[in-house]
Amino acid sequence: MSRHGGERIGPLLHELRKAARLSQAALAEHVNGISGATLTRWDISRYECERRVPDVHLPALAAALDADLRRLEAACEVTRADRRGVQVIAPAAPAGVIALQFAADPQAGVHGWEQIAEMLRRAFVKQGVAAAALPLLGLGEGRRVTQALDLIGHDRVSSVVGSLSELIEHYSMTVCSRSPSEVYDELLVVRGYTGEILKDAGVRRRTDLIVAAGWLSSLLAVAACDMGEHSAARVWCADAQRSGREAGHPEMEAWATWTRSMIAFYQGQPRRSMEFAYRGQKQALVGTVVHAKLASQEMRAAALAGDEHRMTASRRHAATAIAKLPDDAATTGAFSINLAEDPPYTATSLMLLGEYREAVGATDRVIRSVYRPEARQRGEHPSGYARSLLIMGMARAGVGDLDEAVSSGHAALGGCRPAWPTMALAGDLDQTLERRFGGTRQAAEYHARYQEVLGSTGVGHNQMSRGR
Question: N or C terminus: which one in the chain shows less Cβ crowding within 10 Å?
Fold first, then answer.
């Protein structure tokens, strides 16, 4: 119930959806079918959390939920009334900076943060802005983090820089294991805080803050990619690349390029993925983790394109680059590389070129060396483990081992973090099983499970085109 009386739109939508026995993904699909919109499960979640007021989609929501449109409109008005202590002002200058003006009512500030977070997302995607002025208010973890930064800093920017470095390390270790939408929202708060203090920083600390902002933008790109929010991911990549250039930090620039290459790969654009991977290797020196990873990425993109010669050359260069890594090269976290007997993505590359038996062996080596003991399978990078299982499934299908292929697929879908790249591969396995073993009970059971997981997550699932 609102403090102004009446129903709020978020709880009402949640109640109506549950009564209709619809998942968030299913409701989004119904609305899209009615209105031609392109909503995802994440949009429905934002409506129910009141991070966004539906407005334009209200008629379609009413139809999908068999609800009274006037009731939904009234709930939206009540929600807006609870937010009227917040004014959002977008000044003409400086370009790309959003000024937020809050009323004295602290409760209004808390309600307003939900609106602001969504407004920021739209503004970043639309304008490609590099910084935002955020209040030191938020919800949950994001609010606590900015409060801690404010108290620790208190006119000492050096203390804030140190704290931001700790946060970047923390998020780089957890962004691949936590819910991408949750970590995205937290990172958005911290990135906005960094942009705010950057405006007033002296010359001596400005570069440090630019570096921090760049790494946070790179992490935001990773989280957005895992949600299937590709436009937002590209905006954050561009911001990280700009920060890298401004701060003279080529590795930061290269990591953002790697993310763009990876997105293109899973969207079925191998030539574009190769182009990004090649460009990124020019940005970072041999002997850095990102150079080795980009060489490996170029290898699997070449395999997806069917370019065996370039795949072999890239594999050879990746092996050379890995051999030149320092002993303390990062092997965990978002900015790391998995070190096994073969360069990363070797199994995927072999599978894409039809060398299925070799791919089975290479995948098995990765699982044994990277994802053992079992705690690492679902701890540090559950999505990475799931993708290895899906590659194993497709390789097993290639050699005619239906039972093992399906077993690997079910194990992958049993994970707790179905990110967009994972669901893309899961869809590829579904197509492979249909093509090779269509009509079998095992293939039908996997298809049903894949559809169930896809429907419950709403994660984008653009499938890679094999070109054959």
Answer: C
Nearest to 448 by CA among 434, 461, 462: 434
Per the CB < 8 A criterion, the answer to whether 302 and 338 are in contact is: no
How far is Cα 414 from Cα 315, in angstroms, rounded to an integer? 31
Distance CA 199, CA 180 (A): 28
> What confidence category does residue 158 fall into, taking pLDDT thresholds of 50, 70 and 90?
low
Category of 53 on φ-ψ map: left (φ > 0), alpha (ψ -120 to 50) or beta: beta
CB 183 within 8 A of CB 171: yes
CATH code of domain 345-468: 1.25.40
Residue 220 region, left (φ>0) first, then alpha (ψ -120 to 50), else beta?
alpha
Domain boundaries, the chain: 9-82, 84-248, 269-344, 345-468
Here the tokens at position 123 are: 């503004």
Closest CA to 421 of 394, 466, 377, 461: 461
Percent of the chain surpassing pLDDT 70: 77
Tens digits of residue pLDDT in 391-409: 999 999 999 999 999 999 9
Task: Please give the Cα distance from 109 to 4 (Å, whole number).
Answer: 16
Q: What is the pLDDT of residues 284-327, one digit of tens each?
A: 999 999 999 999 999 999 999 999 999 999 999 999 999 999 99
Name the 3-class secondary structure at 316: helix
Identify whether the C-beta of residue 206 lies closer than 8 Å to the C-beta of residue 444. no
Cα–Cα distance, 195 to 158 (Å, whole number): 15
Burial of 248 per CB tally in 10 Å (0-12, 13-18, 19+): exposed
User: Rounded to whole angstroms, how far apart are CA atoms 437 and 431?
Assistant: 10
Q: Whole-prediction pTM value? A: 0.68
